[in-house]
Amino acid sequence: RPMKPYKPVDDVEDRVKAIYEDVLGQKAHSSWLQTPITESRLKFRLLTRCIKEFGHDVPSSQLMNVKCTDDIVEFFSTPVEGLSPYEILSEKRTSYP
């Protein structure tokens, strides 16, 4: 299934950090990007806020890949073209010699 197109903003890391600080209720430490997210409730709260902030959904197939805060920053920093798998194959096929 194609995902909705998404173009990340320039300050993803800063926005995720602000959400992180708000959700945890404390200032982020210097290694906040390596913070493990093992608690389901924390993961839910962080991702829900990020989805609202960026207007970009996290597919259920990607939820298990979110293990630390850096994974959240990486996900919301990655652009999505919004093509279906068939369209991607079709484009690749026309680019062959």
Task: Give structural notes.
Keywords: Mitochondrion, Ribonucleoprotein, Ribosomal protein. One of its GO terms (cellular component) is mitochondrial large ribosomal subunit. It is found in: Mitochondrion. It comes from Amblyomma tuberculatum. This is Large ribosomal subunit protein mL50. The protein has about 100 residues and is an all-alpha fold. The protein has one domain: Non-ribosomal Peptide Synthetase Peptidyl Carrier Protein, Chain A, CATH 1.10.1200.10. Helix content is about 55%, strand content about 0%. The chain is built from five helices and no strands. Helix 1 packs across helix 2 and helix 1 packs antiparallel against helix 4.
